[in-house]
Amino acid sequence: MKKIYIENINSINETAKQFVEIIKSLDGKVFCFNGKMGAGKTTFIKAICNIMGVIDNVNSPTFSIINEYATVNDEIIYHFDCYRINKIQEALDLGAEEYLYSGNYCFIEWAENIAPLLPNSYININIIEQENGSRIIEII
Prior knowledge:
Largest sheet: 7 strands, mixed
Oligomer: single chain
Order of helices and strands: EHEHEEHHEEE
Distance between the termini: 5 Å
């Protein structure tokens, strides 16, 4: 397990740079972001996408469930928000398996709602909010 820290919102891009350096050395491309509501999952994913060169507007896929972003290097990143998924069939109907097994980076919020569909090589990212407002990012 590796840990990195977001001291405050002003340091989020620096932490995102550290995160991207770490994940590029890992085998998997599916990342499950875990944390309480309001822990900063979407905000951190936005910063990561910025560092990875996303040219699209990055926003929460709460209602669309899956957003697709293009990067300056012609790569595709998928951003899932599975909070509203109640049944696996809903994810299947959206084509979630095609995205998850595409070989592209997938950043997933509320992944527990689609757990049976996740590849064996997914990587958990825990975001833990501290009393002082900082965050601990655990890469497991």
